[in-house]
Amino acid sequence: MTTEATLRGWLLAEIPTSKLQARCQRVFIGWLDFKRNPIAMIGLLIILGLVVVAALAPWITTSNGLELDLANRLKPPSSQHWFGTDELGRDIFDRIIWGSRITLYIVALVSIIVVPIGLLIGTVAGYMGGWVDTVLMRLTDIFLAFPRLILAMALVAVLGRGLENAVLAIALTTWSPFARIARAEALTIRNSEFILAAQMQGISTVGILARHVTPLCMSSVTVRLTLDMAGIILTAAGLGFLGLGAQPPTPEWGAMISLGRQYLIDQWWVPTIPGIAILVVSLGFNLLGDGLRDVFDPKSGN
Amino acid sequence: MASTAGGQPTAGTGLALQSKLTSILGVFTSLLLTFIGLTAITFVIGRMMPADPVLAIVGDRASQEVYDQVYLQLGLDKPVYIQYLRYLEQLVEGDLGTSIMTAQPVLDDIIRFFPATLELATVATLLGIFVGIPMGVLAAVHQGRWPDHIVRVISLVGYSAPIFWLGMVALLVFYANLGWVAGPGRLDVFYDGIVEPATGILMVDAAMSGEWDIFHNALSHLVLPAMILGTFALAYIARMTRSFMLDQLSQEYILTARVKGMPEYKVIWGHAFRNVLVQLITIIGLTYASLLEGSVLTETVFSWPGIGQYITNSLFNNDMNAVLGGTIVVGACFVGINMLSDLLYRLVDPRIRK
Questions:
Q1: Where is average pLDDT lowest: A58-72, A85-99, A219-233?
Q2: Residues ≥6 apart with Cβ < 8 Å to B178
Q3: Which distant-in-sequence residues (6+ apart) come within 8 Å of B292 by Cβ?
Q4: Closest CA to B279 of B207, B208, B344
Q5: For residues A109-128, average pLDDT
Q6: Which of B170, B227, B244, B305 is deepest in the core (most CB within 10 A)?
Q7: Which of B43, B152, B154, B160 to mutate to test the interface with A (most CBs of A within 10 A)?
């Protein structure tokens, strides 16, 4: 009890005594705001649930979701198969659970590609200004104006069907908003006094961009990324549904819907349940993103 | 339009007009650049495609002479930028190549398939506008109370749900179980080919030739996919309307109007909504453009013979001319509509000028 009280006191102290304390305080106060928002908490719980389920998949499931059991084809949901079985007798519950790993994999891979590219282009454009800014932002605008799904389809057509290529295609059409955001942040930061101080200390442009400008872009980039996650998941699932993303027998949710489509009328659970999984996860990211935006940027939240 | 009323009294009208012209010129510049970018990408994709473009034309049993001849004809011996310029020239002439699948010029195919997509996306956008805007206004006016919560939940679910799944479930419920609407496709088989296609938009064609049975049947086929596609439009438009309205309602001129004793409906629709409408132009343009593109998935679920299905089918048959042609046409529409709404916004809104 007392340790908790002192921890709280340390986290809420008027004047932080160390860099670490200041950082922890900022996170903690943000968390207090965030916690008051029930909608955002639901979102957080959904995403945490997704991560936990993905991590514990081997212990939650009874099969690897790939083994065929033709004697038990298209069985309705029961105590043995909670979500029923699909056209090859595979347990749908297990496939959904294993599929959560693929969803997280897609999300992580897109983020890893998109955020550094967006940050690099945006901060350089905003910080340098002049013709560099003009050229980079023209490029960004061009990508921003592209139709996302169609372009992803055309790219997958060239690169070949498959999960990684779908991710690459999505990433190529997703980075531009991040460049825009990073540029806006860099523009407001570049004339501040601490940047001037850093310049006078002789820190190189690269150093300033990496150590001083980029960290300040992170909060708005994080919010945008969370809000974009739902769109990324839906596009990936859409490509999977069209047969251009993950290929069978991978338990990717979009591909599962596509395969289950022909059983819709008589065995509704086969295509319906993966769709519910997609809906829940994308809802989770949207709720979480809304909540994060309220915490980081209360003005635009309303 | 309202462009002449655009000048603020403080600024000189000539100056305002000039800056407006500059900003319109800016829109055209970026339009041009975006088109160049789009064609550059399709060009690169066309060159990178796994199959040899020459082999795709002559087949693998052609002699070396024929191969070389076609190779030269295609200009593959020229430098890349010359090839690109040639490609642009062909595009401007409307030459998108020949489809392997249908053995017809890609442009002809697209002209045949496009009206179906246009019809679907237009009806969906109209649904989004006429349902989404009142919902957004309602939510903003009752901020924090139950109408607001309901609208927020609907719009959240609306753009969190995978559209192809929603379409499937809707087919299951409204077509298979309840039988309220017609199933996949644009028309029942026995109505096929009766009406002479004039506009390509079935309901218009049927109405023009007085075939009301067909009109009714086409409508019955259209309702469900349009509603499903419209869900996304509705969600987005309702959300943005709500947020714009909240912004306006917290302004001081609204307070002034209320203090003066102006009736509430006048404050909302006459004052606040008028300003919101200008902002909504861009949003509606954006929605329409993204529905033209986004109808790919809906078309697949509902076997709707539109451009999205054309591209998807071509993709599976490695018919690259058709895929790239479709991409360019949809991309051009997407970019064009966005720019058009941007332009309209600049013309209508007096505050935009840099």
A1: A58-72
A2: none
A3: B117, B118, B121, B330, B333, B334, B337
A4: B344
A5: 92
A6: B244
A7: B160
Cβ distance B330 to A147 less than 8 Å, yes or no, reads: yes
Using the structure block, give the residue that is written with the tokens 């071509």. Answer: B314
Arithmetic mean of pLDDT, B197-208: 74
Residues in chain B: 354
- Angle subtended at Cα A151 by Cα A145 and Cα A156, rounded to the nearest 5 degrees: 155
The ipTM assigned to this model is 0.83
Whether A134 has its CB under 8 Å from any CB of chain B: the answer is: no
CA distances from B114 to A154, B87, B109, B132, B236 (A): 18, 23, 8, 26, 24
CA distances from A25 to A9, A16, A32, B231 (A): 10, 8, 10, 42
Q: Distance (Å) from the C-alpha of residue A234 to the closest C-alpha of chain B?
A: 6
| Contact between A122 and A139 (Cβ < 8 Å) | no
Query: Are B229 and B295 a contacting pair, CB within 8 Å?
Result: yes
Question: What pLDDT was estimated at residue A234?
Answer: 92
A293, A39 in Cβ contact below 8 A? no
| pLDDT single digits (tens) A20-64 | 888 888 778 878 877 887 888 889 999 999 999 999 888 888 887
Q: Which has the higher per-residue pLDDT, A5 or A204?
A: A204
Tens-digit pLDDT profile for residues A281-299 = 999 999 998 888 877 765 5
Residue A85 DSSP code: B
Buried b (16+ CB within 10 A) or exposed e, A115-134: bebbbbbbbbbbbeeeeebe
In this complex, do A142 and B34 lie within 8 Å of one another by their Cβ atoms?
A: yes
**Does residue A91 sit in helix, strand or coil?**
strand
- Give the per-residue pLDDT at A115: 93
Is B105 in a helix, a strand, or coil?
strand
Q: Tell whether B176 is within 8 A of chain A (Cβ).
A: yes
Q: Which amino acid is at B95?
A: D
pLDDT level of residue B45 (50, 70, 90 thresholds): confident
